[in-house]
Amino acid sequence: MEILILITIVVVVIAFYNFRDYLYNPASRPKIEENGREIQDIKEYENYEDPYKSTSKEDKIRQSELGILVSLMSKVAHIDGDFCPLEKELVRNSLEDIAEQITLQSATYQKEEILEILHNIFKNTTQDVEELTYAYAELTKGQYKRRLKLVEYLLMLAYADSKLEEKEQEVILDVAAYLEIENNDFNKMYDAFAEFYAKDSLKLNIDKAYEILGVSKEATFEEVKKSYKKLVREYHPDILHHKGLEQSIIESATAKLQEINGAYEILKEHYKNQEANNG
Fold first, then answer.
1. How many Å apart are CA 252 and CA 213, to the nearest integer?
2. Of 213, 217, 216, 218, which Cα lies nearest the Cα of 230?
């Protein structure tokens, strides 16, 4: 009996000291939800660092659907080492649209700041096509038409200089494969572009070129250039909104853009020759 009493006293003393520590150190207690389930200690919570909080704006944008779109544009535009005027304008306009879209989605972003980030992403994309496309696929699950429009846009961007280089073709084929674009859908788009650009080059004279760009013969080259940029902006394809998913880029933009670009190239050469003759 004495031994039992002694054991009981020892247990009570130990329990008392433990309970006293518990009372004096409330931060060490686990937090209990209403259903009785323990969650992580408060100390651990206080030391927790939200990984998204420490991510820079550029990293967030790079990892977003629109950021990945910019990176894929970069892959196609830079792969052949040739960046023609129409390609530059298409990229510039698309980055403007994307910057505006991101700004509308978040009140904490300023458009000029976002535009600078997008230009940096376009100039400095180090991820490979496979990694980028798989990431885009994860963000566009169940949005097949959106994926289809992306591939069509990349084809148009590659064809901006009126020809599809082998390296550009390889990138676009990879993107289409990783996005699981059906063969029939891809072939239909691919054949439409190939057929369009297989036609004879647009034959324009100088008078017609002035008419297409909407400037007079007395216009300066800077005025011609300004009108060219305005028209490319007006006719460049919208790849950000669902309203344009049903309409083919070939039908809605490509023919007009090539006409505008052809007129600009003729007048650019015309003004260059005039300057050389006057010099």
1. 18
2. 213
pTM across the whole model: 0.76
How far is Cα of residue 89 from the mean position of the Cα atoms in its chain?
Answer: 16
Nearest of 63, 71, 114, 65 to residue 91 by alpha carbon: 71
Question: Of 147, 265, 253, nearest to 196 (Cα)?
Answer: 253
Q: For the segment 232-263, what is each residue's pLDDT rounded down to a tens digit? A: 999 988 888 755 556 788 888 898 999 999 99
Task: Look at residue 79 and give its three-state secondary structure.
Answer: coil
Which of 82, 67, 43 lies closest to 167, judged by CA?
82
Give me the chain's average pLDDT, please.
82
C-alpha distances in angstroms, 209 versus 41, 196, 228? 73, 20, 11
In tens, the pLDDT along 136-167 reads 999 999 999 999 999 999 999 999 998 999 99
**C-alpha–C-alpha distance, residues 182 and 178, integer Å:** 11
